Amino acid sequence: MAVQTSLPASRTHGENKPPVDTFHLGAIVRAHRPLAFCAAAMVVLAVLSGVGLVVDQRLVQGEPVWLKPFKFAMSFALYAITLAWMVSRVQRWRRTLWWLGTVTVAGFVLPEISAITFQAVRGVRSHFNFSTQLDSTIFAVMGGAAYLGWLMTFALGVFLVLQRRVDRSMAWAVPLGIAVSLAGMSIGYLMTAPTPDQAQAMHTAIKLATIGAHSVGGIDGGAGMPVTGWATETGDLRVAHFFGLHALQALPLFAVVLQSLARRFETLRDVTTRAGLVIVAALGYAGLTGLLLWQAQRGQSPAHPDALTLTVGAALAAAVAILAAGVVVATSRAIRR
Q: pTM value?
């Protein structure tokens, strides 16, 4: 059901009936224009950055200079439109959520993407760059914006959790998605810590141009995968950061898919079954994020997992499959009784 259009969102607090889990673009825009327009702006920036990838041949540490703005713009577009969708479905604290979303756009997304794009125009690195006072200031601004973004996402999550929902599976998907996403965001802070070599140099009072890294067991700028740029010769913290961050979209989307499949599969028509499967999926997603983080911290590239990583991954997949089967069997028996 779409959000009512007769009154602004701030004046319809608690007046709508609980909406179904659909993606209604008009309702999303009306519910939170700053987030919706932010998502649209990020799509435009992604397109412009894509053009830059073609016409601008400059490289920064072996990567095309416009690759980072492109990736961050796409990620922020998903982040903003997902939050706007969640806000469009709430019944309580709509004004509070509107302000939290607006602060997220103004204090987190815009400063972060502006700094990244500005450094790309200059042809220098945006992250971990302490080459000049300007670079240090820009990175400090990005760090402050990231902290604010984490806090705003957490606050939004609290108010989103305390909502009445039509479907219990979505009631689980939203908080679990936010929780795993916050954990994924937190991995970014591990990248800002000095590497062992940098820490040793800092003890000798050497002024460093770079402090922090996303690579483990090597230096940033080595061989990387196409498009993502993830390291193929060393560990890369960005992989776990990426997967964890996008639990915010993955788990609610999984709940929506289960709702759609319930029309065809009788087993999924029971809300308890769908809720249980969402919980299992969240555990599996969190486990995968943890596995990728563990792999990176061992200095191992995601492109070349060793036998131990593959064994743990297989055990995780088996555990998820067994738990999912257990949920289906247990709820089916309960329904028959």
A: 0.86
